[in-house]
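Here is a protein:
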Amino acid sequence: MSDVEVEGFAPAGPAGGPQRLFVDGVWVEPDGGHYEVIDPATEEVVGLAPEASRAQVWQAASAARAAFGTWSRTSPQERAAVLDRAADIVQRDFAAHAELARAETGATTGTARGMQVAVAVARFRRYARGALEPVETGLPPQVNEAGPMGKAGVLGALAVRQPVGVVTCITSYNNPWANPSGKIAPALAMGNTVVVKPAPQDPLSVYRMAAALAEAGAPPGVVNVVSGASPEVGEASVDSPDVDMVSFTGSTPVGQRIGEVCGRGMKRQLMELGGKGAAIVFDDADLDAAVAGIGTTFSFYSGQICTAPTRVIVQRRLYEPLLEKLTRYASYLKVGDPRGRDTVVGPLISAAHRERVESYVELGRKEGARLVAGGDPMSPRPPRGFYFTPTLLADCTPGMRVVREEIFGPVVVVVPFDGEGEAAEEEAVALANDSDYGLLSYVWSADVARAFRVARRLRAGGVGVNTIGRNMEAPFGGFKQSGVGRDCGSYALGAYSETQAVVWAG
């Protein structure tokens, strides 16, 4: 095993040989060797990612524990400066980072630049400011009568946010820049240290992020990155006794298993899990706007996004017009090489995932859904790459698995509802809430009062009214099996904090 110090060293990767782990400020050879990271668009090898052993993951957590005491006592200004410098460094190498993100994920060039690397820069900037936000809240004084607890007096109190400790950040494959930065930056801003376990499909970008933070002045042990294709790596990053909190983005079944382990050790959790977003479209809606919003499911990350409006619940009068417009919308989307300037839909992340999406579409047909558009991996299929055409399933019913389960691909299912006035609202809300998930849902209606009334009744962590846009200062997270906790904006600072009460006699 050979260790190479960060200073003066560019981490190995696609342009410089196999990638090493990053543990305690040192680039470390992995015990488990390396595995290939594949470009979903070409099936070519992007680079060799390191396979950590369980012992190395625990070493990373131990390093984070050792670094926590000093880092948690640094001034907010110092933590802010590190995050700001990291943003500068990522921005400096923006083009190379975007190309790596595109190659690892299959995202289009525009998405890799604007929604991956650029978002990471913005999040480091946001939480550099966040490090300076007040952590103390004064509480009203309390007058106590004399009694068994002491003599009469006035008690003052503060609620103080303190760092949790060592946070394991387990990130999703659909965005290896925005998702990790959204965990690492607020965790560091609050004085925590982190062990980052990237998704096995695209970990190389996360090592670039770690290198930027090290160059920016994050002390050894504050940021550690361990990757691997084996489930053992993720398990070790959760069950290490040095880990105080797990922040996870991924599927609900994996989140449930992580929650069981965390429960045994009373570890804090922040989980953003699956979604099956309901898009309610009333018959007075701006149909073109609704179709444009829903249509992003086909194109944005090729449907590999948990916030997508994949389950359309449309009032009967607009049912056929919506199907017609959504079919036309899908037909305009160019599927192909994500490097192409006019490409809108790139590939899915892997051959295995493409097979999973295909199987769901076939299942929908067997369940009685009508295939209106797409439904195949592309005809003619490109010789290489994991492509799948935008797919629309109509005549769906609430009990179908394609309506109830997260497909995570460019597939939209449409369910009609009837009724007028209050009865229509009741049916739409009942259909939307008939789900195990509750991440983001959407309402389209020209009657804004009705739209807000319906939004308040939806069991979802967020609701878009006549928009799919998000306010990044708003709390983000899910109801039901879509997650635990909230992040984004200042809510993320709270998520990576423990609240302490300090009481004194006046």
Summary: The radius of gyration is 24 Å. The chain has two domains: 21-273+483-504, 278-480. The longest strand covers residues 153-163.
